Amino acid sequence: MIRLKYYIFLPIIITVVAVFSVEIPAVITGTCSNCHTMHNSQNGEAVVSYVYGSETTDAKNYLLVGTCLGCHAQDGFSMVAKVNGVDTPQVYHKDATGDLAGGNFAYILGTKGSGASDAKGHNVIDFGNTEDTLSSPPGHHDPDGIGINITCAGIAGCHGVRKSGGGIYGNHHRNVDGRLTTADQAYNSYRFLTGVKGLEDADWEKTKSVSDHNEYFGAITPMTYSGNCNICHNPQGIKPANNTMSGFCGTCHRYFHVTDEIGGTSSPFTRHPTDVVLPGSGEYSGYNGGGNPYSLVARVARTAVPAVPGDTAYPGTDVVMCLSCHAAHATDNADMMRWNYKSTTLSTAISGCNICHTAKN
Ligand code: HEC
Ligand code: HEC
Ligand code: HEC
Ligand code: HEC
Ligand code: HEC
Ligand code: HEC
Fold this sequence. Notes:
two-stranded antiparallel sheet, single chain
């Protein structure tokens, strides 16, 4: 009987889930005092306690108990930490078991990994260590604009609304999780990256496998610039017109993405392409071995955001993206690579390239 009931209700459940799975809101729930303090005072003492490094415990904007880094960069031993009991993803930590999807800013400062290096990631100035080698984003259209002073959020940041006076405000409470196919506001975009579509893994890839991971959105041709400012500039701030992850990176690293600079949309290319299809023939058809299992190292992007993570890559359909080779925050490798391309051991250096370029060794 129990089984019978199950079978009767299953189609209904599936229908309900299918109808509502377009956008699953994970709006913040729980006691306001987990994250807010009304006066920053309790028994005469400051309540603000989630601060990074030398930040003070003075009262914070939006009456919060901590700063961005206080909540997200605790330098502890877990990649997802409890902040007043709330699971909070960490971007700076010493968890020996791994890192979340973006990587870990701790590699830049050397508090985790093989030693400090500015080349290991984006030197977000909030961490107090500015980039010493580069003076602007490589491949940028306006070297004296953004400079190297990138921040978590705002005009010179990646998350939230990227215009003067923009930022994260109003997004945590409206945050939509899961499959994000609208992406016209920060809160309904992938990880608050305004304009970017994708499928967010529920635990930010704390646990990951070939069938449990984020899915990235890609296109079959990169953006074309030809003087068209609107591929990045928009009344809502700077965002990629094509909604892809590579287009997003290209808003600051334009030359590495647009067709005008990479040599068009087909071979021969002049810069490694992104948002081009992995050919369905030749060496690419053997992507990552028989059956083309999805690789967590040389990841592919999808041209339609799937409802669930896929365990297979499809040469002929899926595309190469910036995050096929790089992580977004920082890794333990030079140039934020997902593998050690600078290694003097050839097999290590090409280990990621090989997953797509299966005939090169
Ligand atoms: C898990 C942490 C968390 C909890 C719990 C929480 N907030 Fe917030 N809230 C934030 C953060 C972070 C911000 C600032 C960043 C932003 O706006 O995205 C914020 C911003 C706000 C804002 C200004 C922006 C907006 O969206 O209106 C208001 C008002 C607010 N919270 C009220 C509340 C109330 C009322 C409660 C309890 C019912 C609550 N919050 C519970 C984290 C939290
Ligand atoms: C009071 C603690 C707190 C503060 C302060 C705070 N956050 Fe968060 N943040 C959270 C929590 C908790 C989550 C997870 C909530 C969820 O998944 O819905 C989160 C989620 C996020 C996410 C991931 C959203 C997603 O789609 O999964 C981003 C990006 C983010 N925060 C950026 C920021 C930035 C940038 C700031 C500073 C401007 C900031 N946060 C300040 C607690 C905080
Ligand atoms: C808001 C602008 C901005 C965006 C968006 C952006 N970057 Fe950057 N990137 C910079 C700046 C500024 C630098 C140079 C300063 C630094 O490395 O800290 C840089 C440096 C880099 C470097 C070289 C690191 C080094 O120190 O040698 C790589 C690799 C990189 N970015 C990849 C990416 C990828 C991949 C994305 C998309 C996930 C991306 N960037 C998105 C601004 C940006
Ligand atoms: C590839 C993406 C991209 C394109 C295309 C682009 N911009 Fe920008 N632009 C940016 C980014 C990112 C910033 C913010 C950081 C900075 O100041 O460099 C910016 C900043 C600016 C600023 C400084 C004011 C501000 O909002 O910070 C001006 C002015 C500007 N752009 C004008 C233009 C014009 C005019 C064009 C077309 C000829 C253009 N941009 C094309 C990405 C782009
Ligand atoms: C096929 C792998 C691959 C892809 C895809 C890729 N990169 Fe890179 N990137 C590298 C490697 C390897 C380096 C190290 C320098 C080199 O060998 O040219 C690098 C270096 C960089 C640098 C540093 C350049 C400097 O002057 O120091 C930036 C910035 C960068 N990449 C951004 C991007 C962005 C943005 C995208 C997507 C539009 C992207 N990369 C796509 C492999 C890749
Ligand atoms: C996620 C898959 C992927 C990864 C990883 C990857 N590539 Fe590629 N690469 C491609 C695709 C797709 C093309 C374009 C093929 C085409 O359309 O002919 C390409 C093009 C190239 C080209 C230009 C070929 C031409 O005909 O102009 C070179 C060279 C190259 N890749 C080298 C590398 C190196 C070196 C690495 C490692 C740092 C690497 N690739 C990693 C997918 C990948």
